[in-house]
Every structure is written in C-alpha cells, then in structure tokens.
Amino acid sequence: MDPEDSDYQSNASNSNEDNSELEYSDDEKSGTSVILGEDVQDGNQVSDSSAGDQSPRKRSAENEPPPRPFKRQRSHLNPDYLDLLNRDIEDAAHRVCLEDDIDLPDSQLGLTYWSPLEKKQFFEALSRLGKHDLPGIAQRIGTKSTIEVKHYLRVLHEAVIARRVQERRSYLEPAEYPAAIELTPQCCHAQEEAADTISIRQETREIQREERKWQACWDITPRIAAELEKKQQQQQQQDDGAANLAFAKLFHVPRWLKLSDRMFMNSSMPGSNWRNIEARPPSMWATTLDDFHSLALSVTRRLVQTTLFISMSRIRAKSELRPETRNIVRKRDVEAAVASLGLSHNANDLWRKSARRLRLNVYENPPTRGDEEEEEEEPMTYEEVEAELSNEEPARAKSEDSDVERVKLEARSTDEVDDSAVDDDSDSPGKPKDEEERAVNREINEVLWYSAAGIRDLQSTRRALKLRIETERRQERHADAVDEYASYTAETDMWELLQKAPPAQRPRTVPNPARMALQRSNLDVESLYAMNRTWADGLEYQAEWETLHRPVEPVNHDTEDDDN
Q1: Where does this protein have compositionally biased stretches of type Basic and acidic residues (predicted)?
Q2: Gap between the Cα atoms of 338 and 367, Å rounded
C-alpha cells in the first residue's frame, strides 16, 4: 500500500521513535488519519478535581501509583506493525481481503459480464457469507444484482455436478484447504503491547483536538456534568461555552455518566470494569455527546416526518368516503411509522436483559462498607433479575443444595460407569489395545448403530467402513500437521515483525508436511450412504406472502368511527 494513502504514516525524518507525536492531516474526511511526528507533552487529561488544570509532567517515583492490570502501557513504536495495521484497516474498509494474487480471467455468462475484480470479490464474499446469502454477496460486490449472483452460483453448481459424474474425487484434499492461523498467548500479548503504543499516541492527539474545540469542557467528568446541569436549571448564559452546549439542554448528562459507572462499565469481569483500568470514574467526551445529540435530532425528525406522511395518507384515503374525517394524528400512525423505520417500540426487553448481557452483579440489598465484616450477600441470579424487572415470579428451585447434590451424584455415577467400561475393555480378551483402533471402531459403531443410514451390520460392511474411516483419519492427521506448520510459520513471521524474540519454550523448527505426499483417495464414508449435503437443491421457492401462518385480516372501516 502506498504510504501516502495509509491511515497512519510514519515520519522517516524523525529517527527517535520513542519521542513522537500525532499530527492530524487537514483532510476532514480522514477522521482517523494521523502522521507520527514529534512527541507531545503528557498530562493533558482532566481530573475530577480540576477540569481545566493540567497534571504535572512528571511525578516522583514514590508517589507513582502502581499500574492497573488492564491499563495500556506505552512502549516503542513499531513502524512495521503500523503498516500491518494500515493494511488491515484498508481491508476492513473495503470489506474484502485480496492478499492472494489469483489470476481469474474475465468471462461472460449470458448477458452478464464478470471482470477479474468482480470475481475476486464474489469468491471472497462467498467464502465469508456462504452460498445462501445472495443479497449479502451482491452487496459485497456492489456491481451485480442478486439474480446475477444466483446465476453465477447455478453455473458453478452445474459444473460441479458434471465433474462428479466423470470423477468422484474431490478437487482438494483436506490438507489443501486453508485453515485459520493460531497464535500463542505470548505472541498475542506482544501484539497487544504494539497496538497499545499506537492507540495511546493517537488518543493523545485526539485529546489535543478536543481541547482546541471544546476548551475546558472537552472531557465531561461527573463534576463538570453537575455544573452543566446546575447552569441549565438556573438558565444562566455565560460566555465560556459551557452554557451553550446543545447536548446539555437535551440530555441529563449526570445520568449518562452514572449509566457508565453503574452498568456499561461495571461488569463482574475484571477486564470490563472501569476500576481495573482507570482510577478516576468514567467520563465522556463532548464530541460523543454531541454526536448522540445529532443522532437524536435526526431520528426524531425522521419519525415525525414519517408519522405525518402516514397520517396524511390515511386521512386523504378516508376523506374520499367520509368528508367529515378530522385531521388528527392517531397513535396507530406513530406505531406504523416506528415499524416502517425499523425502530423498536420500547426498550423494556433491552433493559430487562442488561444484567445478563453486561455480566452485572445485582443485589436486593446493596452491600455497604459497614457490612464488610458480616457475611456478604450472594448476588441475584439473572433469572431473578429479569423476573423482578418484568413483574413476574422467578422460577426458583425448591432447594439449591438438593440440586447441587443431585448434580454431584449424577457426575459420580457417570464416572463409575465410564471407569467400569474402561476396565471391561482392558480386561476382556480380543478387545483392541491401540487407541487408533478404538477410535476407528467407535466411528464404525456410530455409523452402524446410531445413524439413519440403514446399513446392515455385516462383516463385509465393517471392512468397507474401516478402510474408509482409516483413510479419512490419515487425511485429517496430515491436514492437522499442515495447519500446525502454517501457524508456526505465521507466528515466526509475526515475532520478526514485532522485533522481539520468541519465548524459550517455543520449538525452533517444525517439519514441513508439504514435503510429504498428499493422501489422495477415492474412498470416503459418504460413498456408502449419502449425508444429504445437497439439501438446498430440493427446496422450492415461495414468495413472502406464501410463508404467512395466517391470512391477513381485512380492515373494518365501521369500527373507526372515532376518526369522524
């Protein structure tokens, strides 16, 4: 990717990577574009006690608080990791990853012309969305309709069927399918450190931009929110810009911060709780509240316009039959407008399930500091919380202890049965000793006894199944070795990109399974009984109105006398 087009660009003129700052470009469209230059002064954050005062640049070592476990740490900037981030951002923006240079020729199917780029986008979307999401594939391509995508898929499907008639062997063996790369936790942690460095530098520059735009009110802390609320209540007009904030006139800002403090950032999981990340309570940038304010106005305007359009259409249609119809907006007009815009009628279900979604600990009687010596109360279950918020009786168990005891007894009995089964297998003569043979026999019994294949348990059938299962297991082992080597190679490249040494316990070399011959074979278990992989071919198209469970009831105009 051209360095001039990247979202983040490194300044080669500055050799000291440790002292760098972020300088935003003048292009308004590139809201996330930054140029790494010289370092800025730390300490531009606003504390709760003084929103406008800057913190000192340096503090003594004895007064330095210990770092929090989930707090981002600044380290050296890695330009190579920056380039990797730029490529990923570009792929995410275009919703396509075209790293592999595959030469696809252009072609024409009927009256539809497919260019090489459209084919790449088609197969990329097909691999991510599946062949049944036709609207999604067409949206990813952008230049082809759903009918054209369906036509292309039909041509490919017919070609596969024609090839199977001539040759039953698959195009690719299991080892030839690309698998996802797996990285060790140590490598992921090293990537997090490199990402934190870039994140901190960009956040520092964004803070400077916010301060220039909003002055002392750029970071809405609980103290500033209380001041804004007080000024709005007193209706004072001041020239410092605080009283002229549009979102402060519409929103109750202290409640927004309390939501983050009590709910959105108060999870029982340590990584999602603000107390493990920052010492000061949650705050919100003024730009964020301003965006919510613009969004609220936009949604309200659309809702009012849609409601007026629906009500006027209803009144115009009824006025032809009943001239005495009054020009009144009804409740059902608003409900129809909400439904047409795809909005939710209420947020009761959202708040009712918020404790489960946010992993909150909810108490009937919140514990206090004075009750620390006493026995701590257990939090309510999510079922109890949802039942309380929905005014329903919670479905509680008769006895929690009895349920736990019952689970223990069931687990103990299951372990005894498993142990006895293992003992029987080891003591009985003629049983297979090798673990591979045991696994093959289990799969044979599963096919013969527990599947709906309808295959008779004969000696010849067992031999045929055993041959096919052993072949498939060899192919799976070879595919696992190929995937392990691919992960090892990718992690080695990542350690080199991060300019760090891999952990000592990591193996130095892994044998390349690509040098081994592929386990190609025409034998597979599916040749004995069909697994119905082509189930979609037997489906019949139905229009949306044909899928309705009950007919649409006609509108009775006689019951609408209240509109007159």
Answers
A1: 393-415, 428-439
A2: 41
